[in-house]
Amino acid sequence: MQKADDLGYEVRATGWDDPDAAGLRDAMQAEMESRYADRVAEVLAAAADPDRKLDGALGVEAEQVVYVGVAYAGGTAVGHVALRRYGDGVELKRMYVAPAHRGSGAATALLAAAERAARSLGASRVVLQTGDRQPDAVRLYEREGYTRIPVFPPYEWLTFSICMEKPL
Predict the structure, then answer these.
(1) pTM here?
(2) Tens of pLDDT along 65-121?
(3) ∠51-57-62 over CA atoms, to 5°?
(4) Is residue 5 classed as helix, strand or coil in its secondary structure?
(5) What UniProt keywords apply to this chain's record, in alphabetical order (predicted)?
(6) What are phi and psi of 118, to 5 degrees?
(7) Which residues, at least 6 apart from 34, have a Cβ–Cβ distance to it below 8 Å?
(8) Which residue from 24, 62, 116, 127 has the least number of CB within 10 angstroms?
């Protein structure tokens, strides 16, 4: 699935192991570790607790992924999004845009591509989890029709979680 938007971003469907996709996920991971640095110890302690259901909260297994999209601008990979099954819908995972391309429409193009993919997979809704230190992401999702919902598993132990959904 490829589609170029009006701002020149082309979102290409690819595999989880695609080098551009992996590089963007690595950049996202580094940014999130920095943004939430003071909470890392709390998260790691919770992850070590065997009574917590952590499957899927901190990581994404390749076999769970049903769609990966990478946004390109002039041949350069600038953004990433993935979907995995979640109940009767899909969960948006690893949405990321390189800092130099934020505010330029890349995130909107990625989100639109993910929603098209979700519809083609027969999903009834898209759910997502983000954090309280990502207000730009929350504003994007709200602008695109997502509404807040109660924190859903496995994120309930991440006290800074914000969860949202959009019916398709």
Answers:
(1) 0.87
(2) 999 999 999 999 999 999 999 999 999 999 999 999 999 999 999 999 999 999 999
(3) 120
(4) coil
(5) Acyltransferase, Transferase
(6) -60, -45
(7) none
(8) 62
What is the DSSP secondary structure assignment for residue 65, as one 8-state letter? E
Q: Where are the alpha helices (DSSP H) in the chain?
A: 19-35, 40-48, 106-120, 135-143
Q: How many CB atoms lie within 10 A of CB 65?
A: 19
Superfamily the domain 9-167 falls into: Gcn5-related N-acetyltransferase (GNAT) (3.40.630.30)
8 Å CB contact between 57 and 154? yes
**Domain ranges within the chain, ordered by starting residue:** 9-167
Q: Which residues of 103-133 are buried (b: 16+ CB within 10 A; e: fewer)?
A: ebbbbbbbbbbbbbbbeeeebebbbbbbbee
